[in-house]
Amino acid sequence: MKLQVEQVCWSINGTQILRKVTLEAVAGEFVGLIGPNGSGKSSLLRCIYRILEPNAGFITLNGEDVWKLSVRQMAKRSGVVLQESPTEFDFTVFEMVLMGRAPHQGMFDNETKQDYQIVQEALSRVGLEDLAERHFLSLSGGEKQRVIMARAIAQQAQFLILDEPTNHLDIRYQLEILQLVKEWGITSIAALHDLNLAAAYCDRLYVLQSGEIVASGTPQEVFSPELIRTVYGVEADVQVHPKTGKLYIVFFPAGTAR
Amino acid sequence: MSQHHLASSKPISKSAKQVRYQLLIVCLLVTLLISITLAVMIGPVPIPPLQVWQIALSQVLPGFTGNWSPAQVQIVWFIRFPRVLLAVLVGAGLSVVGVTMQALVRNPLADPYILGVSSGASVGAVCVILFGIFSSLEIYAISFGALIGALVSSVIVFFLAQRQGRISATRLILAGVAMSYLFSAMTSFLTLKAGTGDGVRRVLFWLLGGLSGAKWTDLTLPLVALVFGLGYLGLQARSLNALLMGEETATVLGTNTDGFRKQLFLVTSLLTGVIVAVAGAIGFVGLMIPHSVRFLVGSDHRRVLPTSLLLGGIFLIWADVLSRILVAPEELPVGIITAMFGAPFFIWLMQRNGGGVNGGK
After folding, report:
1. Which among A102, A107, A128 has the least Cβ separation from residue B2?
2. Is B107's Cβ below 8 Å from some Cβ in A?
3. Residue A29 neighbours by CB distance under 10 Å
4. What's the rounded mean pLDDT across residues A191-220?
5. Structural domain count, chain B
6. What angle do the packed helices B257-279 and B141-161 form, to 10 degrees?
7. How far apart are CA A75 and CA B163, in angstroms?
8. Is residue B36 part of a domain?
9. Which residues in A158-170 are b (16+ Cβ under 10 Å) and which e?
10. Which chain B residue has its CA at the smallest distance from A123's CA?
11. Which of B241, B244, B245, B350 to mutate to test the interface with A (most CBs of A within 10 A)?
12. HSE (CB half, 13 Å, CA atoms) of B279?
């Protein structure tokens, strides 16, 4: 599935948050969205998954305007992994993942054997098959995030949106989540705050600053000490790691001699 | 990565869970039937259990007769049966409203009484009685007035509770309590001002509820509202589940949250209105029952709704029985009984902040 964002603007109370943002993600591509806090990453994603309606511009999935699709049609095409929002109502892991089947079921439909099978497969994909009957609220942060991933998998999404999916997770779970996205192989766009993870996992990156795209390309094309200085106001060194062949970035605290 | 928690397995326990749920429903149905029988038996004139159903049958099947007095028929069929069945409908309805409101605001402390919706309905009903508005609706005028009152108070409370489109739990409870006081005061004022001899008793009815003097005709509207409300909610059970996940997640799972919330708003106001019109403002049922039910069956609304319906009915039958026998031959408003159970429950609920509400461990 191909995502196209064209000249999207969005503002709230007269403050322009997104300024003519244009980007695309082609089939199977894992696109990263990076930028400092408040640069508009989440707002842009919210425009894509239809919480915020853009003031100008358009967003299409395989040529279809997402804002002209129904909520349900949209839910059949795209899955969203958000940071876990706290709730006091508890469901079992199985029930949580089964919710991913909702957009495919009519009001009068019951779950079919096939639905259960899809949920079962989604759970094994994320390695949670043994926790199916556990209560969601009793899980660790990493397990919870994998449940949310499994729900998107059960949704049979062809396009995935992730908003800082690795926040508050231990490094092992951060790697696990991004590895899952990578292995799934569907078109994905993720807002990420960790530049090293973005460099390691994303095919291409867009850099947002004050609601504008200021750079884009492969991690090799995007990351440079100059860019990190202008966008984040931090001195950094960018190297290719001899073992992984990927970029890695080292940050220098203010006043540290280079 | 998944060598821990070996004990739990899924496909087998899935069906085991289903069986356990079905067993629970059967138990509740049996309990409900027994409760109805006992509640009709209990009273100043005791009636033997068999006679309860014999008299009931004689009223529905022509030609079915036995040796009982017309007075016994009067007591069983025209006094106690409507009252007990009204208790079932009101208890069931309030529980369903509680379940729905809690999903609507995503907060386990929501309940029509705590949020001031019941007392708003009381004001509407009292206004109809006092000023004779909607008189063209005849016997449905009071219910309609209560429905309008419920709608108006929900709009006010939810408006006060939200800030930048988000409803905070604290603000919701505070707004509910404040409006609840205001509406109760208005009800009392209007009722007393009407100056019909039994003013104080009528105030008690509207503020604390009561099922005495229930007639068969009182059952119609609550029954119709409950059937339609429950039918609608049953079809939307999956969307109710999604709503508990939060507005954004519900949207990305295919629920049109704006429209859906408005519909839920209407359904809860409708049910609260018709219930308050016949039974006054009975508190805490909509709070206690959904919680106990989630503890038993989890949060999936396809199980929560039917279970709440049955448990709520059973609970209110017994609350009403207690209200009849505790200070016999006098009667207590049934709201006193529900508050005796409900207030400690509410406090217990607040104490265990954090964690899940249905025994997440």
Report:
1. A128
2. yes
3. 17
4. 95
5. 1
6. 130
7. 28
8. no
9. ebbbbbbbbeebe
10. B10
11. B245
12. 32
Q: pLDDT digit string (tens) for A8-49?
A: 999 998 899 999 999 999 999 999 999 999 999 999 999 999
Distance between CA B171 and CA B161 in Å, rounded?
Answer: 5
Distance from C-alpha of B289 to C-alpha of B307, rounded to nearest angstrom: 9
pLDDT band at B360; cut points 50, 70, 90 = very low
Please say whether the beta carbons of B188 and B123 come within 8 A: no
Distance between CA atoms of A94 and B198, rounded to whole angstroms?
A: 57
Distance CA A102, CA A76 (A): 9
Domains along the sequence of chain A with CATH: 3-222 (3.40.50.300)
Contact check, Cβ <8 Å, A127/B2: yes
Structural domain of B186 = 86-351
Structure tokens at B356: 């899940």
Q: How far does the CA of residue B170 sit from the closest CA of chain A (Å)?
A: 15
Residue B43 counted as domain residue: no
Q: Which of B4, B13, B249 sits opposite A85 (nearest CB)?
A: B249
| CATH number where B189 lies | 1.10.3470.10
Given an 8 Å threshold on Cβ–Cβ distance, is A70 in contact with B251? no
CA closest to B247 among chain A residues: A51
8 Å CB contact between A176 and A140 = no
Q: In this structure, what token pair is assigned to residue B255?
A: 């629920």
pLDDT at residue B350, rounded to an integer: 75
What residue type is assigned to position B222 of the chain?
P
Q: pLDDT tens digits, residue range A156-188?
A: 999 999 999 988 888 999 999 999 999 999 999
- For the stretch B30-54, pLDDT in tens is 999 999 999 999 988 889 999 999 9
